[in-house]
TrEMBL record, chain A:
InterPro entries membership: AAA+_ATPase, ABC_transporter-like_ATP-bd, ABC_transporter-like_CS, MacB-like_ATP-bd, P-loop_NTPase
Name listed for the protein in its UniProt record: ABC transporter ATP-binding protein
Pfam families: ABC_tran
The keyword Cell cycle appears for this protein: no
Domain (ABC transporter): residue spans on this chain: 19-256
PROSITE patterns according to UniProt: ABC_TRANSPORTER_1, ABC_TRANSPORTER_2
GO molecular function: ATP binding
Coiled coil: none
Protein's organism: Streptomyces lycii
Highest rank taxon of the organism: Bacteria
From TrEMBL, chain B:
Source organism, top-level taxon: Bacteria
Protein name, UniProt field: ABC transporter permease
InterPro entries, per the entry: ABC3_permease_C, MacB_PCD, Macrolide_Exporter_MacB
Pfam families the record matches: FtsX, MacB_PCD
TM ranges: 268-292, 315-341, 361-381, 407-429, 435-455, 493-516, 713-738, 766-787, 807-826
Record's bilayer topology term: Multi-pass membrane protein
Keywords for this protein: Cell membrane, Membrane, Transmembrane, Transmembrane helix
Length: 257, 841
């Protein structure tokens, strides 16, 4: 698979950095039960790039995402979103940062069952008290193919549709960066590839920056760049991956069977 | 299965906390009531038994033997006393008299409330002392100018031996010197009343019992039993008297006290039952939620071979354990409540004799049974629902959203119950059948409880514009509130029950107060009414004195008499025809006060109708002394419960009265009512503590005070039910926050800050509380209306008055309660770590 096969013109590739981790360390617990989840990780996530973070269970891939996304605290080192250093922010400012600059897609969809699809999509803007940008919203809704499902409640939608709502929610606010935590983990392969297609299109067509944690080589193959983690360290990196290439690298990771 | 149940209870300790508290409070109310009433009853019995220490046999008039009290000869005379004393089996005999004695405190105000201030005789025996009274200071009164006071009254008023006090028994004010202070076991004093002792002769003269005693008590000599003494006395007893042994007297007293404490405990238990009923909603809610949260576990049990019955039983066993713990705690708290109640009542001025705490063996048993049974009944339906979880639910890897069961069946049942209840209520109202009304009201309350889920959507939707003002938090709160209609409904129902009762009682009380005011005050044109604090008659001198004052422009006595027209009972009031028109404003349908002359009579409509009388007709009126007068109707008016019967000039009445007394004197002042005017009247009557001078405001305040006191007591009793309902709100919110932790985590992740998460939970709480309050107030108003229909039959001036200010306060309090109940769940929600919450299971 190549980026040109989607039919979208490749967006101008900027070298600006959307998020950056520098010597990022995360330690859980203390004393004998102490676990080093991230051990001096340094990485840049460039704008308009689709990055996949891979690694075996316990490699620290989710922790890396949580730390850079301002969901978890950092033990030492630095994490930035754009020019904002996260380590100096209080909870209130972090919340505001997440609200205004970050989009999230979770494995378990995490939609509000009381809201319909459209309300779920515009929820971050409602929270911020902003009016949604109508043409943009229409475009996002059209892109994920939900135009005729907007008034439905999540319980009336299939898993794939629910995740499309979640993708639209993440895109609607035009965040600087979107983090996805196993976004296809709960989906069948057809719905999964649909979602991944949307994500890639939003990067190449709309210039969105996306960072996705996954353990599925096929999912990773939709990205521009795969970063491999093992034991809390970055051990390898792959550009323009294919599923086979990813699988190959995975086998050779330290600790892999 | 027992082990599973026990583990479950232990694992969900925190989630069961509110349930345990709810059951505990209900049980505490019940056991507190039982312990308190047992303790008080026992204390009163002990103290009354003690007051019989100096009595072996009592001689008293046998009321059943004499049919006409007024006509009978004096029986308990000094002669009888001396005969009794001379009996070989008697050591001593004492004659006692007592009656209302108004004692003024240092500010000139009446001590006590008018009924519990008594005067009695000090009757020294052969040794010069009266065994009933134990002097702690000074000596007994010996002359008409001397009195003694019981020690508690002395302490309360600050009077000491040597002080001069003002008091009044039969009208005129007396000034007496306090010669001593005493302790006594007298029942009235033990219950908080005052006792003034006079020397024997003075007491008998003042209390109007110069010729006989109220009672003669005889103490047996050493070696003579009560029965032997009673037999000796029996031989010399005059007809119309009876002798009673101490044991029988004590039993009589004990029976009376038992029946009094029983009625008190019955009343309290009613309210305890309401509190427990409210608790049922919380228990059911908790177990429903626990079962829903454990669907997978329950399915696993079923999958590995547990039968439906075993699953239900395991839930019931959990309920049993919860009920048991709550009941034990509740019993402990109940004892605390009983102790607290006793000192609370003591601090409010009422006196309960000292005594040990009495916990009868049945009390802990009752507490246990009630706690366990109520909890198990409430958990029964959720338990049955648990058994319906199919084993395959254990295998579903996807987080199964519990299917929302349709409300069609529930709504239909609710609608039928409500309709039947309403029909019974209306039937009761139209037929004046109180039984139908009560049953209808009860059925309606239950019907509305069943219908609450249906009502929750429209009512809460109506609040949307208000909530949208709070932004996204308000919007989410509203949607959360209607998300699980059953849960919202049972939470709100718990609050609704309390508010229905509170609203209905408030409306009825305020309306009754208004009705009484209307009767008592609206008809009065006079500025003051003068009466005795006991309700006894005033001497006619009082009116004379007041009439002679230059400040008064009109006065009239209100002199009661009774008699018959054509054999029909007809009360009559003697008035001064020259002034009455300025003092009383009757609703005349014909004639007026103007034509009232020597032979005239103003007749109320009811009496006029009964005897076919109209203005100008004449009729025979037969007085109590069996003599008749021919009277002419000079006016007909619409009477009510307080002003009714005939009005005739005092000149017509007086010749037929054995003793001329006025139950009231109406006074109009030159300058209207004022502090100065009142002072003038009080001073003119010699600052007599026994005489009450009231302006209209004071009269209506007196009614208002009584009704307010009653209402506040009811509020206090219903407070427990409301408190339990509030625990229910806390419980529901805490459970909801727990269930929605993923959602809340997601909201936090996408940028909802902590303060708005808190606001969201708080608003949901306020919405639920106000929903319950609105339903309760609505239903309460309706029930008050229905009850009012039957009250207005008895009380003609009754019209429903809605105290909007109080209802606004109830709503405001419901909102405050909502905010307070949300405090803890909101904090928990805000503390949720976004990361923990969104991590996939």
């Amino acid at each position: 698979m190549t980026t040109t096969s989607t039919g979208f013109p490749a967006a101008a590739r900027s070298t600006a950095v959307a998020a950056r981790a520098t010597d990022l360390t995360k330690v859980y617990g203390s004393g004998e039960t102490q676990v080093v989840a991230l051990d001096g990780v340094s990485i840049d996530f460039r704008q308009a790039e689709f990055t996949a973070i891979m690694g075996p269970s316990g490699s620290g891939k989710s922790t890396l995402m949580h730390c850079v996304a301002g969901l978890d605290s950092i033990s030492s080192g630095s994490a930035r979103i754009g020019d904002t250093e996260l380590t100096s922010l209080k909870d209130k400012q972090l919340t505001q940062l997440r609200r205004d600059k970050i989009g999230f897609i979770f494995q378990a969809f995490n939609l509000l069952p009381t809201l319909n699809a459209l309300e779920n999509i515009t929820l971050p803007m409602d929270i911020a008290g902003r009016k949604p940008d109508k043409p943009w919203l229409d475009r996002v809704v059209e892109t994920v193919g939900l135009a005729d499902r907007l008034k439905h409640r999540p319980t009336e939608l299939s898993g794939g549709q629910q995740q499309r709502v979640a993708v639209a929610r993440a895109l609607a606010g035009r965040p600087e960066i979107i983090f996805g935590d196993e976004p296809t983990g709960n989906l069948d392969s057809r719905s999964g590839s649909e979602i991944l297609g949307f994500l890639r299109n939003s990067v190449h067509g709309l210039g969105q920056t996306i960072v996705m944690v996954t353990h599925d080589p096929v999912a990773a193959s939709y990205s521009d760049r795969v970063v491999f983690l093992a034991d809390g360290r970055i051990v390898d990196e792959l550009s323009r991956p294919t599923a086979d290439a990813v699988l190959d690298r995975m086998r050779n990771l330290p600790g892999a069977a | 299965m027992f082990r599973t149940a026990l583990r479950n209870v232990l694992a969900h300790k925190a989630r069961l906390l509110m349930t345990v508290l709810a059951v505990m409070l209900g049980v505490a109310f019940v056991s507190g009531t039982l312990v308190f009433t047992d303790t008080v009853g026992e204390a009163f019995k002990k103290s009354s038994a003690k007051s019989f220490d100096h009595v072996s046999v009592a001689i008293r008039a046998d009321w059943s033997a004499s049919d006409d009290e007024n006509q009978r000869e004096p029986l308990l005379t000094d002669a009888l006393l001396r005969k009794a004393e001379a009996l070989p089996g008697a050591e001593s005999a004492t004659g006692s008299v007592s009656g209302f004695t108004a004692l003024a405190d240092k500010d000139g105000k009446l001590v006590g409330d008018g009924w519990s201030t008594l005067g009695a005789n000090h009757a020294p025996g052969s040794d010069g002392t009266d065994p009933r009274y134990d002097f702690t200071d000074g000596r007994a009164p010996e002359s008409p100018e001397e009195i003694a006071l019981d020690s508690r009254t002395a302490e309360r008023t600050g009077y000491r031996t040597g002080d001069t006090v003002r008091l009044s028994v039969d009208g005129p004010v007396r000034e007496s010197e306090v010669t001593g202070v005493f302790d006594t076991d007298d029942g009235n004093v033990a219950a908080g009343g005052s006792l003034v002792l006079f020397d024997n002769d003075t007491a008998r003269e003042l209390l109007g019992k110069a010729e006989e005693y109220d009672e003669i008590t005889v103490k047996a000599a050493a070696g003579t039993s009560q029965a032997e003494l009673k037999a000796e006395i029996g031989e010399m007893l005059p007809e119309g008297t009876e002798a009673i042994t101490r044991d029988v007297l004590a039993d009589e007293q004990a029976d009376m006290i038992t029946s009094q404490t029983k009625s008190m405990s019955d009343t309290l238990l009613y309210f305890a039952a309401i509190a427990l009923f409210v608790g049922v909603f919380i228990i059911a809610n908790t177990f429903t939620m626990l079962v829903a949260q454990r669907t997978r576990e329950l399915a696993l049990l079923r999958a590995v071979g547990a039968s439906r019955r075993q699953v239900t039983r395991s839930v019931l066993v959990e309920a049993l354990l919860v009920g048991l713990v709550a009941a034990v705690l509740g019993f402990g708290v109940g004892i605390g409540i009983a102790v607290g109640l006793r000192s609370l009542i003591g601090s409010l001025g009422a006196v309960i004799p000292d005594g040990p705490l009495v916990v009868s063996p049945s009390t802990p048993l009752t507490a246990l049974v009630i706690g366990v049974v109520v909890t198990m009944i409430a958990a029964w339906l959720p338990g049955r629902r648990a058994a319906k979880v199919p084993p395959v639910a254990a295998m579903n890897s996807v987080h199964a959203t519990p299917t929302t069961r349709g409300l069609v069946v529930r709504n239909s049942i609710g609608a039928v119950i409500t309709a039947v209840g309403a029909a019974a209520l209306f039937l009761g109202v139209s037929q004046q059948e109180n039984l139908f009304m009560a049953a209808g009201a009860g059925a309606m309350l239950i019907g509305v409880i069943v219908l609450t889920p249906l009502l929750s959507r429209p009512v809460i939707a109506a609040a949307a514009p208000l909530l949208n003002g709070f932004g996204v938090a308000g919007k989410l709160a509203r949607q959360n509130a209607v998300r699980n209609p059953r849960r919202t409904a049972s939470t709100a129902s718990a609050l609704m029950i309390g508010l229905t009762l509170i609203t209905a009682l408030t409306v009825i009380a305020v309306s009754v107060q208004g009705a009484i005011n209307k009767m008592a005050v609206d008809l009065l044109k006079s500025d003051y009414t003068v009466s005795m604090s006991t309700g006894n008659g005033l001497s006619p001198d009082v009116r004379e004195t007041l009439d002679e004052l230059p400040e008064t422009t009109a006065t009239s006595p209100m002199r009661n008499a009774y008699g018959e027209i054509d054999g029909g009972w007809a009360p009559l009031t003697g008035i001064d025809p020259k002034t009455i028109g300025k003092l009383l404003d009757l609703d005349f349908s014909g004639g007026s006060f103007a034509g009232l002359d020597r032979d005239g009579a103003i007749v109320d409509q009811e009496t006029a109708d009964a005897h076919g009388l109209k203005t100008g007709d004449t009729f025979e009126y037969t007085f109590q002394d069996d003599r008749s007068e021919t009277l002419r109707v000079t006016g007909v008016y619409e009477g009510n419960d307080m002003v009714q019967g005939l009005f005739v000039p005092t000149a017509v009445v007086d010749p037929h009265l054995e003793e001329v007394t006025d139950y009231q004197v109406l006074v109009k002042m030159a300058g209207g009512a004022s502090e100065g005017a009142e002072k003038t009247l009080v001073e003119a009557l010699g600052e007599n503590p026994a005489v009450k001078v009231q302006d209209k405001q004071a009269t209506s305040d007196e009614v208002g005070k009584m009704i307010n006191l009653m209402l506040n007591m009811l509020y206090g009793l219903l407070a427990m039910a409301v408190l339990i309902a509030v625990l229910g709100v806390v419980n529901t919110l805490a459970m909801s926050v727990f269930e929605r932790k993923h959602e809340i985590g997601m909201l936090r992740a996408i940028g909802l800050d902590r303060s708005r998460v808190k606001r969201m939970v708080r608003l949901e709480s306020v919405v639920i509380s106000l929903f319950g309050a609105v339903l309760g107030i609505g239903l309460g108003l309706f029930m008050a209306w229905a009850a009012g229909q039957s009250i207005s039959e008895e009380l003609a001036t009754y019209t429903m008055r809605i105290p909007y200010d109080r209802i606004a306060v109830f709503l405001g309090l419901a909102a405050v309660v909502g905010v307070l109940a949300a405090a803890w769940p909101a904090r928990r929600a805000a503390k949720l770590n976004a990361l923990e919450a969104i991590k996939a299971e």
